């Protein structure tokens, strides 16, 4: 039997971003996905779950998803993986972006491993396929567990909506293409955790998401 993924969603920062603590039930090895801020809340969730974090995963480089990645890496002594290299300018400019949004102390971060289409990421005994899904940002990635029928989609897709494309590097046509060519084919039974708001399923979005009509 493949190991089962478990997840705890930790809303962080004034943007209420879904930082996700994802772990392998068999090994209790975990990853923190998109630590945007509120490090104390993230560390409390890690302690409550009783898991060992082995890496930090970034779906893209925006401040509300990556603002605390450097500090969390220093605190835990673990590597950062993702996003795609196309988001390097966003990660390099996190201090300036944070200042513009009134978020103090954000630090630039360079991942220990950039992710590309076709790569895989492991968390304990779990394996996730990497899909490069540009549009919301040039380097956005989605992580898919085909065994568990589960995806971590960042700000590519939301329940009833899609990622905004009016930020630097955004491209609405590219975003819709990413969703239609890479996410919808995953199957209607695939559940997802987005970067903001409630969880959903691919099937629900195929039927009712107004941006995909």
UniProtKB/TrEMBL annotation:
Matches recorded under InterPro entries: MBL_Glyoxalase_II (IPR051453), Metallo-B-lactamas (IPR001279), RibonucZ/Hydroxyglut_hydro (IPR036866)
Cited Gene3D superfamilies: Ribonuclease Z/Hydroxyacylglutathione hydrolase-like (3.60.15.10)
UniProt keyword Signal present: no
Keywords per UniProt: Hydrolase, Metal-binding, Zinc
Domain Metallo-beta-lactamase: 16-196
Cofactor: Zn(2+)
A molecular function GO annotation: metal ion binding
PANTHER family in the cross-refs: HYDROXYACYLGLUTATHIONE HYDROLASE GLOC
Protein name: Metallo-beta-lactamase domain-containing protein
Lineage of the organism: Bacteria, Pseudomonadati, Pseudomonadota, Alphaproteobacteria, Hyphomicrobiales
């Amino acid at each position: 039997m493949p190991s089962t993924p478990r997840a705890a969603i930790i809303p962080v920062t004034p943007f209420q971003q879904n930082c996700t603590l994802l772990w392998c039930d068999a090994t209790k090895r975990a990853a923190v996905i998109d630590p945007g801020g509120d490090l104390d809340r993230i560390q409390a969730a890690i302690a409550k779950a009783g898991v060992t974090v082995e890496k930090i995963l970034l779906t893209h480089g925006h401040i509300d998803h990556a603002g605390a990645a450097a500090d969390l890496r220093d605190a835990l002594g673990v590597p950062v993986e993702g996003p795609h290299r196309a988001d390097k300018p966003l990660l390099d400019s996190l201090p300036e972006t944070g200042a513009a949004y009134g978020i103090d102390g954000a630090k630039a971060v360079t991942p220990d491993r950039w992710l590309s289409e076709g790569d895989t990421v492991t968390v304990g005994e779990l394996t996730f396929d990497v899909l490069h899904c540009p549009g919301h940002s040039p380097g956005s990635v989605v992580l898919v567990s085909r065994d568990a029928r589960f995806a971590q989609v960042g700000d590519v897709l939301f329940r009833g909506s899609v990622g905004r494309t009016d930020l630097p590097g955004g491209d609405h046509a590219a975003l819709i293409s990413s969703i239609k060519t890479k996410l919808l084919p995953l199957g209607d039974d695939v559940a997802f955790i987005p970067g903001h708001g409630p969880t959903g399923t691919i099937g629900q979005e195929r039927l009712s998401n107004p941006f995909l009509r």
